[in-house]
Each structure stands twice: as C-alpha cells, then as structure tokens.
Amino acid sequence: MSTPLTPRPVTIDQARARLSELTVVDVRTPGEYASGHLPGALNVPLDQLERALPALKESTAELLMVCRSGARSAKACVLLAEHGVTAATLTGGTLAWAAGGHELHRPAGGARTTWAMERQVRFTAGALVLVGLGLGLLHPAWQLLSAGIAGGLVFSAVTDTCGMAMALGKLPHNRPRPADLDATLAALGTRQAAGGRRQAAGGRRQAAGGRRQAAGGRP
C-alpha cells in the first residue's frame, strides 16, 4: 500500500498527550531550533531531510514533523511520503505550541539563535526593495530590482514556495555543522534501539501472560 501524500495533522493537545510516544523532528534551521523547540525534538533541517531518510525509515515510533507554523513540516511529510515514510505534522507549529502555554526547550551550551526564516525573508525582501528604490534615484534601471522582488513575492504566494527562503537557508548561520547533524542522527538511532527493546519487552510480557493463562486453564 502506498503512503498517502497528504500530511496527517496532529493538534497541539494530541501532541502534548502523546509526546513521550512520538519521535519529534524539528525541520527548521539550527538557529530557529535553538531559539526554542518542543521538548525532546531532534533538529533535521528541511534541506537535510533526505540525508536522514535511512534513519527515519527505521523509526519504531510515530514521526511528528514540526516547524514554526506548520508549512515546512507539511512539506517534510510530503517528502517523506514520497519515500514511503509515514509522518504527521503539528498543526500551527511551535508558534501554536507556545501560544498554548506549553514549554519550549533550548539547547544547552548557549547555542546561537537566529531569526525565524519568515522574518529573514521579510527583512531581506524589504531591504532589497529599499536598495532598488534608492539606487533608482541614480539610474532608473535599478528600480527593476524592486520590481523583481515584488514579482517574486507574488509568485511565492501563488505557488506556496519561496526561492528566497531556500537561498537564505544555504547561508552558514542557517545550516547545521556536520557534527551537529551526525549527533542528531546518532540520537535518532539510539531512540529507535530503545523503542525496539521496549517493544520486545512488551512482547515477552504478553507471551508470559499468555502462558500463565494457559496454565491456569489446565484442569
């Protein structure tokens, strides 16, 4: 059976009630993740998700993808579904989680934080428009820069994509260090192993219970 491409939404209350049972993957940039994330969430930026596919495919727990508002986590679910991996998306993202009064964790050691990607896009687009208008006073051709940014924003809204966000995501402050991503993948593997042991232990308990019932039923 193929994996449905439409992400399954999970509400804040549902996620909070089952948080210990879920493998939560935060697909924001490392700086956004450092600014506050769901307890226990692992950081795998959206543009690094394919690298994590082998580990995610082995997950014994249900995957919950998280971002700031839910847009990137929904895209992550679609990407995973294309590779046969089922995952859910947190409705409203970390914004809704925090708005509900729930705790956000921050990495130990004073990890660097950055603006949310949406804020970076707004700042960059606005700055480029101002530059185009300012330089347009020197030569009218520079006004094409402002027009191009405006057209790009319209295209972004119509197609629900953002080329500027993808470009900004490649800047050093928005990318994980290789060691950080390796540590995340190692942590994911450790959780999977622990989950497998719990399932095996549960199976042994059920088998033992079945033997006791069978023994109790003998005359």
Give the SSE layout:
Layout: E1 8-10, H1 12-17, E2 22-26, H2 30-34, E3 42-43, H3 53-57, E4 62-66, H4 71-82, E5 87-90, H5 93-99, H6 117-136, H7 143-159, H8 163-168, H9 178-216
Parallel strand pairs: 1-5, 2-3, 2-4, 4-5
Runs with pLDDT <50, length 5+?
A: none
Distance between the termini: 46 Å
The ordered string of helix (H) and strand (E) elements is EHEHEHEHEHHHHH
The helicity comes to 40-55%
- Structural class designation: alpha/beta
Looking across the biggest beta sheet, what order are the strands in? Answer: 1-5-4-2-3
What portion of residues belong to β-strands?
5-15%
Q: Strand tally, please?
A: 5
* Sheet with most strands: 5 strands, parallel
General form: elongated
pLDDT averaged residue by residue: 84
Rg computed from alpha carbons, rounded to a whole number of angstroms: 22 Å
The number of helical runs is 9
